[in-house]
Design a protein that fits this description.
The chain has eleven helices and 14 strands. It has 280 residues and is of the alpha/beta class. The protein has two domains: 150 residues, HAD superfamily/HAD-like (Rossmann fold); 105 residues, Hypothetical Protein, Haloacid Dehalogenase-like Hydrolase, Chain: A, domain 2. Strands 8-7-6-9-11-10 form a six-stranded mixed sheet. Strands 2-1-12-13-14 form a five-stranded parallel sheet. It has a three-stranded antiparallel sheet with strand order 3-4-5, with helices on one face. β3 and β4 form a beta hairpin. α4 runs antiparallel to α6. The longest helix is centred in the first third of the chain and has 12 residues. The C terminus is likely disordered.
Length: 280
């Protein structure tokens, strides 16, 4: 049995420095597609917040906002969604107002942010463009006015104490799941919206078995996706919990580990059913 489908996380996986996809990784994705292996970016980002070079890839679908949406790669139409109801999104955003965080909300394929970025975000990430492209003075009011379901709510915190307190508060809210794409953030989705569930939707739609699927990721929001794959691959920079469940551990994102993993699959060096956790 050969791999027919590869789900590929972006930040910390296929992107270098959370900014760009290298030419090497882009070429590896195209090689997989040319070989008939369906390769699907699966990201916590909204569709419009993916790098332009990723959106330009000739892939069949994009899994976005942690599995809240699946976008057709050709038509750019939404073929699947699992949203937070707008009333619950407003409640969650009001909760975030009580914490020292930088929040954003994904609506209609794009992230909406507070108009003013916390200077600590600029110091940490070096670029506040993400927080100014589509912005508002109050996120809860923005969602309440539009009455649109939210794909995801995201918040960066500035110390672990805030993170612990925020996770504890959010644990009291029903109908949502709380995960993370890094140690300094939380990501809130519908209780049933995960990358793994979205991947399962594609598997069922295409008649592709779990054993014919590979997935590559680095963070807790990738756990469900790796568990849905017969060949789970953790990045060298992945959190320990991902490495513990993976068949393979590759190089880090800045060393094109995701691309090298794709090429190993293409060469038949890595395949389904493996139970080896080691750097390839």
């Amino acid at each position: 049995m050969a791999i027919r489908l590869i789900a590929l996380d972006l930040d910390g996986t296929a992107l270098r420095g959370h900014k760009e996809m290298s030419d090497y990784t882009g070429a590896a994705v195209r090689s997989a597609l040319d070989a008939g292996i369906l390769t699907v970016p699966a990201t916590g980002r909204s569709y419009r917040d993916m790098p332009r070079e990723v959106r330009a890839l000739p892939v069949p679908w994009f899994i976005t906002s942690n599995g809240a949406n699946i976008i057709d790669g050709k038509t750019k139409e939404q073929i699947y969604s699992d949203l937070i109801p707008w009333e619950r999104a407003v409640e969650l955003l009001r909760i975030l107002e009580d914490f020292e965080v930088q929040p954003s909300v994904h609506i209609a394929g794009a992230s909406v942010n507070l108009r003013t970025a916390d200077p600590r975000v600029a110091a940490r990430y070096g670029n506040t463009d993400y927080f100014t492209r589509r912005s508002t003075d109050n996120l809860a009011d923005y969602v309440k006015e539009r009455r649109q379901g939210a794909e995801k709510i995201f918040a960066i915190f500035f110390n672990e104490e805030t993170g612990r307190a925020l996770r504890e508060r959010l644990s009291l809210v029903e109908g949502v799941t709380v995960t993370a794409s890094g140690r300094d953030n939380i990501e809130i989705n519908s209780a049933t919206a995960t990358k793994g569930r979205a991947l399962k939707f594609l598997q069922d739609r295409l008649g592709i078995a779990r054993e014919e699927t590979a997935a590559v990721g680095d963070s807790r929001n990738d756990l469900s996706m790796l568990k849905a794959a017969g060949l789970p691959i953790a990045m060298g920079n992945a959190e320990p919990v991902l490495k513990a469940i993976s068949a393979r551990v590759c190089e880090g994102c800045n060393d094109d580990g995701a691309a090298r993993s794709i090429l190993r699959v293409l060469r038949g060096e890595w395949g389904p059913g493996e139970k080896i956790s080691e750097k390839g």
